[in-house]
Amino acid sequence: MTDGNSVDASESNEGLNALVPALIARAESTLNTHPRTRGLTASLPHADASPLRIALLGPYSAGKSMLIAALLRLPPAAVDELVDAAPKTHEPTPYPWNDVTLVDLPGTLSGNDGHSGAARRGVRNADALMIVTTSELPGEAETRAILQALDADGFADRSVVVVNKMNAENSDRDVILDEIRKRLGPFADRVPIVPTDARDYVDAVNDPDLTVAQRELLVAESGVDALTAELRSIIAPGVDGVRPRAQAFELLRVLADAEQKWELDGEELGAAETAKEVKESISRAKESVLSTLERESEVVASKIKTAGGKAAAGISEKDGVVPVDVARAVSEELVRASTEFDANFSSSVRTAFDALVAEYGTDVPEPEDWVNDLDSPEPTIDTSPDDESPLARAVREAAEKAAKTGAKKMHEWIGKVAVGGSEQGSTASDIANWLNKHQVGQKVLDASGKITNGVGKFKPWGKGKAASKVASTAGKVQMALVVMGPLMDLTSVAQDQSKWMAINKHRKMIRDHFDKEAHRQRTGLTDAGGRHLSEWIAEVEQSLSGLTKQGAEISAERETALGEIKSLRDEAEKLVRPAAD
User: How does pLDDT run across 476-534, given as a tens digit for each residue?
Assistant: First the structure.
């Protein structure tokens, strides 16, 4: 687990000496939390006060061993023992030199994977690098290896590039060095490039027949003294100044290895991919329905506002009331808008269901029928047919038409049907039974033939569905009646000079009321539809859990682990790769 303590990239090398061990300790705790990465804790760098390690990296026959012989000023017998034409170095070999340790690594690009692996391990344990190539110039593979060491491995400021065998016949020093700089690209100005000829240096030191002048000339032209100076410059900050940076980069490499450990394959990969696919399928289904819900609820709101505008505009300038035909048209439009919403929303849920069934079969549960049970305020309309106004009569007739029964009794029941539910014995259930006693009512109730088995008969579960349908229809009618209320609040206006003021006030009151109701309906439909969808999605997720459980657990575990590893990696990056780089 990470402890959340961030590190400041502006800290000096002295700060690194304290910050890097703290990061390493956190990394050890993180890697130990799971068997996949537990074995990597042994690879983490730990407190180490031993001499700095300068590793020699390069292809076989580049003269690494001869360079070590030159730096160590070995006598002829020791040189012969150290240097061999074949790539004999199989493991990193240490040599003490000037209070540091030179590490001769196995030659790379020898075709021997064991040599390359050992060289790679040697690089990871090194504090600095002596990258050795020759006057023959590195090829593409060798150039890539050099750039990796300087860039990804972080040795750009802790390396020297040695171009050995520079005194070979037909070698043009300036041309070769210019080409080396081109191949180093952006690192050409950051990494010292030292031309050397280790064989000339060894010969100059050990050949007794040379004069002092000849020996001094060969030593100077060999470049070994210049190389020594560059190496001393790199290690000048000492162990406390160089090693923390090297350890931070090694920490990054271990963390990269940890990320690789979380690469899934086989059954785990299959389970994770299945869980991901199911999750994405459910998400697509959910998003498609939510998109429809948002769009259609906005359509309902827009139609309510438009209806309010029509009602307000239709007010008679003669008596200040809404004409009967306008009131009827407006109330019918409100019911139609609600009905269309139900149809479109239900269709979107059904489409989402069909898409999931096509992918995962009958394990996908069918959604419950959508019933718009959005609460409406109690209607304030006077339902007495004896003293009702022309407007009240128009609204009642619109309600009766929307209910499609043509029965006066329906009008009396509208208010309590909408809030009485659809259980056996409810008003909605009674209405469903009453409608189904007659052929006309049966057709009105069940135009699609999915609920009834003819007059007076219901299919299994049909009676409950019929009652729900009646309650839903009643709710729409009730909503229309409530919204139409303001049309009945003013049946006449004062005459003379206050007439137009009163008419305009009435119009504004109606528009404001419809706008408010539009907002309420949109919000209510969105909330209710969202709950309906969420309940079904929860059932789908539960029913498909057999497909997703294993993969979801693996993915969640992986995501958590990778998140913690990334946090550590980001902090280590800030330490060793300042933003200005």
Answer: 554 555 555 555 443 333 344 456 667 787 788 888 888 888 898 899 899 999 999 99
Q: Output the CA–CA distances (angstroms, integers) from residue 192 to 140, 158, 555, in the order listed.
A: 21, 10, 46
Mean pLDDT, the chain, rounded, equals: 79
Rounded-to-integer distance, Cα 315 and Cα 515, Å = 17
> How far is Cα 370 from Cα 469, in angstroms, rounded to an integer?
10
Written as one letter, the residue type at 363 is D
**Residue 486 DSSP label:** G
d(CA 146, CA 131) in angstroms, rounded, equals: 7
For residue 235 the two structure tokens come to 């290690």
Residue range 459-481: mean pLDDT, rounded: 64
Contact by Cβ (8 Å): 103, 56:
yes
For residue 320, the 8-state DSSP code is S
Q: How far apart are CA 334 and CA 518, in angstroms?
A: 10
CA–CA distance, 98 with 51 (Å, rounded to integer): 10
Reduced to 3 states (helix: H, G, I; strand: E, B; else coil), residue 109 is: coil
More confident residue, 395 or 122: 122
3-state secondary structure of 156: coil
- Axis-axis angle for helices 324-360, 390-403 (nearest 10): 20
Distance between CA atoms of residues 158 and 231, nearest Å: 9
Residue 383: partners with Cβ closer than 8 Å, 6 or more residues away: 396, 411, 412
Assign 131 to helix, strand or coil: strand
What CA–CA distance (Å, rounded) separates 523 from 447? 31
Q: Which residue reads 């990061």 in tokens?
A: 23
Could you tell me which of 394, 411, 395 has the C-alpha nearest to residue 403? Answer: 411
Token code pair at residue 226: 């210049």
Which of 190, 187, 222 has its CA nearest to residue 203? Answer: 222
Please count the CA atoms within 13 angstroms of the CA of 152 that sit on its side-chain side: 10
User: With a threshold of 0.85, does the pTM exceed it?
Assistant: no
Rounded CA-CA distance 74/316 in Å is 117
**pLDDT (0 to 100) of residue 5:** 43
Sign, Cα dihedral of 110, 112, 115, 120:
positive
Length of the chain, in residues = 581
pLDDT tens track for 48-78: 899 999 999 988 888 888 999 999 999 888 8
